[in-house]
Amino acid sequence: MRFSFLSIRDPELIKRIGAATALEVRATGIPYTFAPCIAVCRDPRWGRCFESYSEDPKIVRAMTEIIPGLQGDVPAGSQKGVPYVSGK
């Protein structure tokens, strides 16, 4: 599969990548994953700057779709502020 610069900024693709990663990690028996940093990095002196998606808050906001990809979609009517992991 060939990716262009724009396709890698596709929230639906990021969500599917998160879901595939979750399946693979779950198969290993590891109960957690290290995901990219959902932060807006504007100072490269910050140690985790290389992990952020962009300096642009709009891009970072769109890339948060990796979270429901990794954790599963929160069911309708779930209490806000309560952690949710699909299948738990």
Describe what you observe in this structure.
It is built from three helices and two strands. By secondary structure, it is mostly helical. It has a two-stranded parallel ribbon. The chain is globular. The N terminus is likely disordered.
Supply the helix-strand structural class.
Answer: mainly alpha
- Based on Cα principal axes, name the global outline: globular
Helical coverage, percent range: 25-40%
Q: How many extended strands?
A: 2
What's the number of helices? 3
Arithmetic mean pLDDT: 80
**Which consecutive residue ranges, at least 5 long each, have pLDDT under 50?**
1-6
Radius of gyration: 14 Å
Distance from N terminus to C terminus (CA atoms, Å) equals 33 Å
Secondary-structure element pattern, one letter each: HEEHH
Strand percentage lies at: 5-15%
